[in-house]
Amino acid sequence: MHQDSGFLSMRQRRLAWVGFLLAAFQAPVAARVLPDQSWLFSVCVALLVATVIIADDARRRRPANVEIGD
């Protein structure tokens, strides 16, 4: 069986997806409930977690013989 070569383990990847979905769902709910702009923090967290998931996915899809750098 092929071992994934991303920097996140499968458990970390699942937790990242759960965190992304929770933060993405919480932002519009907080925007309706709270009078201030603190819901933007949830959007920023969701974007950060999404960036990590995308970077891990890109690393997993890269061929094994490609070297990083010059």
Verbal overview:
This protein has 70 residues and is an all-alpha fold. The chain has one domain (10-61). The chain has 2 helices and no strands. It has helices spanning 10-33, 39-61. α1 runs antiparallel to α2. The longest helix is centred in the first third of the chain and has 24 residues, at 10-33. The protein starts with 9 loop residues before the first helix and ends in a 9-residue tail after the last helix. Keywords: Membrane, Transmembrane, Transmembrane helix. The chain crosses the membrane at residues 40-58.
Keywords:
elongated, mainly alpha, single chain
Overall pLDDT: 86
Stretches where pLDDT falls below 50 for ≥5 residues? none
> How many β-strands, per DSSP?
0
Helix content: 55-70%
| Class by SSE composition | mainly alpha
Radius of gyration: 16 Å
Helix tally equals 2
What gap, in angstroms, lies between the N and C termini?
31 Å
Order of SSEs, N→C?
Answer: HH
Overall spatial form: elongated
The domain count comes to 1
User: What fraction of the residues are assigned to beta strands by DSSP?
Assistant: under 5%
Largest sheet: none
Brief summary:
By secondary structure, the chain is mostly helical. The protein has one domain. It has helices at residues 10-33, 39-61.
Q: Secondary structure elements and their pairing?
A:
Layout: H1 10-33, H2 39-61
